[in-house]
Write a structure and sequence with these properties.
Chains A, B: InterPro entries: ATPase_BadF, ATPase_NBD, Euk-type_GlcNAc_Kinase. Chains A, B: It comes from Pseudoalteromonas amylolytica. Two copies of one chain form a homodimer. Chain A is an alpha/beta fold. The first copy, chain A, folds into two domains: 141 residues, ATPase, nucleotide binding domain (Nucleotidyltransferase, domain 5), CATH 3.30.420; 118 residues, ATPase, nucleotide binding domain (Nucleotidyltransferase, domain 5, 2-Layer Sandwich). Chain A is built from 13 helices and nine strands. Chain A has a five-stranded mixed sheet with strand order 3-2-1-4-5. In chain A, strands 8-7-6-9 form a four-stranded mixed sheet, with helices on both faces. Chain A starts with a helix and ends with a helix.
Chain lengths: 303, 303
């Protein structure tokens, strides 16, 4: 009786953290989406404190948007998808957070993206935004590839493209590499004439700082710039290989998510591009489904 | 009269900062080298506080080694070569340091390495250690190439090799890249069987953490591992191109300095390898010459 009542009144919040922003959506099974909020960067690999801050900002904005009181944060059952929590040490650290929610269920941003994209059914997703990675769930078995973080992994991501472009431009400006149209683009963007002027501004930048440069690579590739074409092609080839690897597990659907999903599409292997379907729901809805699944499983166990 | 007396008693300290260690040598013109000290990482691009701490540790050890009192730090004329101080913002920040020395003269680690290698005469140097870069002084004109920092530059350096190796191993372990002998080496080194286990341990590592892996790349290349050979060859090709660019300025000598100078030598363009001569003095002696030049110029101006 008690358990059933709790279930009826339940408030959920789905949180999708990323390298550049954090999205939160508040939801109840009776009323659907109640409100949404947008916070800053929430990739715990690049700063745990900043991530928790972004989660709280997006949560508070979602509460406000939903017309709920600040204290009602304690009523929320949070589902949370964050990059890097496949690393056990990071998962544990975040689970130790003295969070304000009623309960908190944590998984990777890949997992919640996949749950959202296929509305909780089997399927595979490739995320290509600031980072890149692939994930599938088929018959209860999940696998993931890539997602090893900037700069050692994340090939084909925005940050990877930006870094490759910077490397190529620094070589060109030093007279040690192929000429590229991106050099003039970056001289103008960074308002400097020298390699050192660019290097200085990029020194210590997080992956999101590099990801902002990806659009220059696509622009230059459209203009047939050889160096930019090589970067885009290499990135797209990796994403195609990642997709093929995921399709080996026979997922019924494949979706691509993130800021680079659309611009990369035309550079993919045509067989792969033909298999890509639109995600049914966004990752923050996947995070809500994840919380609902966990709460309902716990209630079943309790009864 | 006063100036001459000061000059006779002058104590110098030469400091050579690097990504993994900091060397200090105390010197007087009458007695030569009085003592040396070794401190931790001193690359201000990777942490200013740590750098200043390493400088002080190496200074204190050098004072002790020279049989000087702790307070005599105030008598030292310091010449200092640090990575990244070609970036004006970083140069200014370090010059604002409330240092304990009588005077402090700051320049790049490249500059002091070059002064040392050619005992103050014209010449060119390539540094390939944790980072990589090239520098020459010819007829009072200095130029430098590369040295743009990890991970956007420093091709052919230890950190670059380590990063390329990690990237290749993560691809191999995900079934998305060529098989490489380095995968087994890294599984054993990191004591893990998975890509994620390696990625977790490398997450957030500074360039020095990657540079430690360079020896595996050379070992695998010696065993004809294709992936390792491609990395070593690409790195050596860049260093050869860097050398050719420096030789365009007609320096009378060319030296290579740093932990990778020796292992890389056999992979260089043979014309370049034949031009490489041993450095006459280490970078910390170059830093001492740099301080002496500055002190004596100032005395000349004062008289």
């Amino acid at each position: 009786m008690m358990a059933k009542q709790v279930q009826q009144d339940q408030l959920y919040i789905g949180i999708d953290g990323g390298g550049t922003k954090c999205r939160a959506t508040i939801y109840s099974k009776q009323h659907g989406v109640l409100g949404t909020g947008l916070g800053g960067p929430a990739n715990p690999l690049h700063g745990l404190e900043r991530t928790l801050e972004s989660i709280m900002v997006s949560t508070q904005l979602a509460l406000q948007d939903a017309g709920l009181r600040v204290e009602q944060v304690h009523e929320l059952n949070a589902g949370m998808g964050l990059a890097g929590v496949n690393l056990p040490a990071l998962y544990d650290k975040i689970m130790q957070w003295d969070h304000p929610f009623q309960q908190m269920f944590l998984t990777t941003d890949l997992h919640t993206a996949c749950i959202g994209a296929h509305e909780g059914q089997d399927g595979a997703v490739i995320i290509t935004g600031t980072g890149s990675c692939g994930f599938s769930i088929v018959s209860g078995r999940s696998v993931n590839y890539g997602g090893h973080g900037f700069a050692q992994g994340d090939i084909g991501s925005g940050a990877w493209m930006g870094l490759e472009a910077i490397k190529a431009v620094l070589l060109d400006l030093d007279g040690l590499g192929k000429a590229t149209a991106m050099s003039d683009m970056f001289k103008s963007h960074f308002n400097t004439l020298t390699a050192m002027g660019i290097a200085e501004q990029m020194a210590g930048q997080p992956s999101s700082g590099y990801a902002k440069l990806a659009r220059f690579v696509f622009n230059a590739a459209e203009q047939e710039d050889e160096v930019a074409l090589a970067i885009v092609t290499q990135g797209a080839d990796y994403i195609s290989r990642l997709a093929k690897r995921l399709l080996e597990n026979q997922p019924p659907r494949l979706s691509m998510i993130g800021g680079l999903a659309e611009p990369l599409n035309k550079w993919l292997d045509p067989d792969i591009a033909a298999r890509v379907e639109l995600p049914k729901q966004p990752p923050e809805m996947g995070a809500i489904y994840f919380a609902i699944q966990n709460v309902e499983q716990n209630l079943e166990k309790a009864n």
